[in-house]
Every structure is written in structure tokens, then in C-alpha cells.
């Protein structure tokens, strides 16, 4: 399994497609976030998928169950391989999302997408959690939401490097854990705005199913060489 997902954090479809092409065979997935999606729309996702890339459509849906279900079904029709929602939308919302993803995949004759949940945004600390009415300790809230996602039939969660190992223990070996915040070792020492980081192999040892790497690859003079170094560290070709 190729665990490397590269964040295509660029601002034009042309750059995204060129990067995708240069990473062909090295990246296990390509992440399209809300900035690129808002600029370029679903046609870019479709084009990447048609070109044979696995697209993680990182739009973090959070709305009433019916709306999220429809958004997930629409995302499946773009050919996305991985889709995410906010676990704090609740069990009914996540169940509706999972069901809609499976149904849309059946209707369109594609494999069901991986549906994962964001637990607590890593930009939030315990004070920020308290300010929105959550009194639990942050790790407890992360584990509670991850278990809720698992019970709702989701395939995994996004987790910071700091949360990866507790989530692996809490949710078992088969649950997906997608870990951004990768720095150090083959991902280089430039921290950018990441603070709590792990290197690629350390993140996998902590329990990550996939790691998400952006700037250490897309900002490198030779993105393919940078991705190859990370793939080597992970033991994938
Ligand atoms: O460039 P860098 O490797 O920091 O990119 C990491 C990617 O993962 C970015 O797209 C960022 O938005 C995303 N991400 C993150 N931390 C989270 C969730 C997502 O860095 N907690």
C-alpha cells in the first residue's frame, strides 16, 4: 500500500495537473483542498481521476445530514477516492454520509470512496474547545469523536501526529488514520507553520495508514525527487 498522499496546495488547475503528472507512480493519493477546489471546481477533480490519480477531496463537509449526504454523493460523482466530513456534525450526519457514499458509488459503478472524519481541528487547543462548550480534555474529545465516526460506519479519521498512536489504540488496526503535519527525516527540517510533527516513518510507526505531505514536496526544487525520498523512507517504490 502506498501511504503517501501529496497535498496539491497550489492555486491553479494547470499547476495541480503538472504536479500530479510529475508525481505519477510515486504518490498514493493527491489531496485537493477547499482553496484549489473553490478556484477550479469539480472538473479538476474529474480530470485528475480520469488521468488515473486517486483524489482525496478535502472539503470537510459539515451540515445537516441530508445536505451532507447529497454533497458526498456529488463528490463520488467527481471520481474522488477519499472524502471527509466533520465528526462534530454527529452520528446521524455521518451515517447519512456513509450511506450516500455507498449508494452513489453503486449507482455510478465506481468503488465506494473512503469516507473519513475530522475530529478536532488541530488549530484548536483546550481553551478553544472550552469556548465552544466542550469541557472534555482534548485527547478525550478526539477519541470520543473518532469512536463515533467508527460506529457510524466511516473508514477512518484525520489525526495530528500527536493523536495518531492514541487513536490507533482506541480504534483498532483496521481503522484508517490519515496524518498530516509531517516534518523531519526525508520530509526535511523546514517547519513552515507546523508545530507538532513526526517524520514519515515515525508517523507510520505511530499508526498512520496514510501521511499527508504538502510543502516539503510541492515546494521542493524537484518535487518528484522529494516524493521519492519520502517513499523510500516508507519502504514503498
Ligand atoms: O505543507 P504541509 O505538509 O504542511 O501540508 C499539510 C496539508 O495537510 C495541508 O493541506 C494542510 O491544510 C493539511 N492539514 C494539516 N493539518 C491538519 C489537517 C490538514 O496540515 N490538522
Structure overview:
The structure is a single chain. This protein has helices at residues 13-22, 34-40, 42-50, 65-77, 91-108, 126-131, 138-151, 161-171, 200-206, 215-218, 223-234; strands at 4-7, 29-33, 55-61, 82-86, 114-118, 156-158, 176-179, 210-213. The chain is α/β, with parallel strands linked by helices. It has a single domain, classed as TIM Barrel (Alpha-Beta Barrel). It has an eight-stranded parallel beta barrel with strand order 1-2-3-4-5-6-7-8, surrounded by eight helices. Strand 6 (156-158), helix 8 and strand 7 form a beta-alpha-beta unit. Helix 4 runs parallel beside helix 5. It is globular, with a radius of gyration of 17 Å. It starts with a strand and ends with a helix. The relative contact order is 0.14. The mean pLDDT is 96. Residues 7, 9, 31, 33, 122, 158, 160, 180-182, 192, 194, 212-216 line the site of cytidine-5'-monophosphate.
Amino acid at each position: 500500500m502506498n501511504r503517501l498522499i501529496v497535498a496539491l496546495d497550489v492555486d491553479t488547475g494547470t499547476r495541480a495537473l503538472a504536479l500530479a503528472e510529475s508525481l505519477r507512480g510515486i504518490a498514493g493519493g493527491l489531496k485537493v483542498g477547499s482553496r484549489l477546489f473553490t478556484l477550479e471546481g469539480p472538473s479538476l477533480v474529474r480530470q485528475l481521476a480520469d488521468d488515473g490519480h486517486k483524489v482525496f477531496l478535502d472539503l470537510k463537509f459539515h451540515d445537516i445530514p441530508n445536505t451532507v449526504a447529497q454533497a458526498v454523493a456529488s463528490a463520488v460523482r467527481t471520481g474522488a477516492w477519499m472524502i471527509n466530513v466533520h465528526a462534530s456534525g454527529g452520528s446521524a450526519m455521518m451515517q447519512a454520509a456513509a450511506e450516500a457514499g455507498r449508494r452513489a458509488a453503486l449507482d455510478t459503478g465506481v468503488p465506494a470512496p473512503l469516507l473519513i472524519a475530522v475530529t478536532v481541528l488541530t488549530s484548536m487547543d483546550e481553551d478553544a474547545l472550552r469556548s465552544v462548550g466542550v469541557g472534555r480534555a482534548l485527547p478525550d474529545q478526539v477519541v470520543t469523536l473518532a469512536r463515533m465516526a467508527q460506529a457510524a460506519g466511516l473508514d477512518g479519521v484525520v489525526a495530528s501526529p500527536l493523536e495518531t498512536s492514541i487513536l490507533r489504540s482506541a480504534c483498532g488496526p483496521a481503522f484508517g488514520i490519515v496524518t498530516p503535519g509531517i516534518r523531519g527525516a526525508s520530509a526535511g527540517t523546514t517547519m513552515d507553520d507546523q508545530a507538532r510533527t513526526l517524520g514519515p516513518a515515525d508517523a507510520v510507526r505511530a499508526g498512520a495508514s496514510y501521511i499527508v505531505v504538502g510543502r516539503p514536496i510541492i515546494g521542493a526544487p524537484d518535487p518528484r525527487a522529494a516524493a521519492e525520498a519520502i517513499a523510500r523512507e516508507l519502504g514503498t517504490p
